[in-house]
Amino acid sequence: MSSEVRSVPESAAGSKKQSLAAMLTNARSRITDGPRPRQDRDNVPLSYSQNTLWFVDQLQPGRRPTTSRSRSGSTAS
């Protein structure tokens, strides 16, 4: 067995580097900087929870919705 190390011709290595650099540049151009503000801020849809609160307020105007939890097995004082 020969322990000869093969070297890649510099022209092939250079073209691979250029190809990789072009691929990275293209990938970076497609990355966004995160969420962008909406253009139409006056017409934003409500979330499910907001819609539910609005509906309850329409049924009982001015009444503040509350949550209640019951524990099974507890005694009322």
What does the model show?
The structure is a single chain. With 77 residues, the chain is an all-alpha fold. Helices cover 43% and strands 0% of the residues. It is elongated and about 85 Å long. The mean pLDDT is 77.
Brief write-up:
By secondary structure, this protein is mainly α.
Give the key terms.
77 residues, mainly alpha, 2 helices, 43% helix
β-strand percent reads: under 5%
How far apart are the termini? 90 Å
Quaternary structure type:
single chain
Biggest pleated-sheet summary = none
Number of helices: 2
Overall shape: it is: elongated
Q: Uncertain segments of ≥5 residues (pLDDT<50)?
A: none
| Number of extended strands | 0
Query: What is the string of helix and strand elements?
Result: HH
Q: What order do the helices and strands come in, and which of them pair?
A:
Layout: H1 10-30, H2 48-59
